[in-house]
Amino acid sequence: MSASKIRVLRLAYVHYQHPDLQRAVDFLTDFGLEVAGRDNSKVYLRGYGIEPFLNIAEQSPDAERHYLGGAWVVDSASDLKRAAMLPGATEIRDNDGPGGGKIVSVQDPNGMFVHFVHGQVLREALTEDSMPGHETTSSVPNGALTKPRKGDVRRFTLGPSSVHKVGHYGFAVPKGKFEETRNWYTRHMNLKPTDSSFNPVSGKDETCFLHIDLGPDYTDHHATNQSFFLSAVDGTATYCHHSSYEVNDFDEQTIGHHWLEKKGWTNCWGIGRHVLGSQIFDYWFDGSGNIVEHYVDGDLVNEDTPERRVPAGPDSLFVWGPDIPLAFVTAQLQDVGTQFAMPPDVSVGKPAKFKFDTAVKV
Q1: Less packed terminus of the chain by CB within 10 Å, N or C?
Q2: Does residue 182 lie in a domain region?
Q3: Domain that holds residue 97
Q4: Rounded to whole angstroms, how far apart are CA atoms 165 and 57?
């Protein structure tokens, strides 16, 4: 890795502003996060992993929702100093919230905030046996041929999915800014493309999944030690498409899905399994209309994993699950219930064209 790059180890948290803070917190706790602290207009919410918090929910200064960026844990104080030397970066300052530490903030080419943190006091790491969850019996599955659970049963309680960590977030950026944005992140940070989907007519990449490059150590495809994705769209707006949170297994994910349904929240897309990254996904709209995801069973990659490129299209999005809804494509709550109309030319390898609302609120 270049000595000039900021070496990040993992994603720490994401930061949103909400027009109705209490409604936002109500959703996030039903989603499986726990309140870790409050500070003036901010609520800090955590999972059961080592991070002091995973999500900052803040009262919006106006009637709109806003995304204020993701924070990345850097390897050393030297990396934090390196971040402070980026053009437009803030000085090193105290980080608010549980865990303390220091922080530097900067904006990417689209004006989206990127934060770098160091020195937080972490929570105690749990073991497999001490993880929270809804199974009250021994977690021993029986398969078609191998059936190790003999004479025992499996029983579960109901409630929100127990969230481990924030896995990834990603932006939709104008097509004309896609290459510049990807280059900014890979030039300044140890992020490396894992998979890209390209327009089969032009050959240009339209979506790119990036992982944290930790050399021989394995990290998540795009999602532990977490990472990032970019998608090129028509229009001029840049916005956060979604942020994603890991749960332990499919039962935990599905129990949480039904809990959110029972509580009256709005599903965006899921449950299904992605192609790129392989994870099982479940996307929801939060209390302000942002998309958040529960995921489980994602791929691991390292420096020896070759970058792959696939043609853009529905077949690169999911293996099984509900058909792609319009709301997932637009990231707009008002489009829930409308199916995404795929044009006939998809069958001959031409990607769908969709015009985004350039006035989308972010």
Answers
A1: N
A2: yes
A3: 8-123+161-348
A4: 16
Q: Is 226 helix (H, G, I), strand (E, B) or coil?
A: coil
Q: What is the DSSP letter of 303?
A: T
- What is residue 254's three-state secondary structure? helix
Q: Give me 89's structure tokens.
A: 């970066």
pLDDT tops 70 at residue 83: yes
CATH code for position 103: 3.10.180.10
Tally of structural domains, the chain: 1
**DSSP labels for 152-165?**
----B--SSPPP-E
Helix boundaries (H) for 203-318:
250-262
pLDDT band at 357 (very low <50, low <70, confident <90, very high): very low
Distance CA 251, CA 330 (A): 29
Q: Compute the mean pLDDT over every residue in the chain, rounded to the nearest whole number.
A: 92
Q: Is residue 141 part of a domain?
A: no
| Local structure of 178: helix, strand or coil | helix
Q: CA torsion sign, 313 to 316 to 319 to 324?
A: negative
Residue type present at position 339: Q
Could you report the per-residue pLDDT of 309-334, keeping only the tens digit for each?
999 888 889 999 999 999 999 999 99
- Would you give the distance in Å from CA 100 to the centre of its chain? 23
Q: What is the mean pLDDT of residues 73-83?
A: 99
d(CA 222, CA 211): 5
Q: What is the largest CA-CA distance in the chain?
A: 64
Q: Is the pLDDT of residue 247 over 50?
A: yes
Q: Is residue 298 within 8 Å of 248, Cβ to Cβ?
A: no
**Distance (Å, rounded) from C-alpha 54 to C-alpha 10?**
12
CB 234 within 8 A of CB 284: no
Residue 131 lies in a domain: no
pLDDT of 313 reads 85
User: Angle 21-31/250-262 helices, nearest 10 degrees?
Assistant: 140
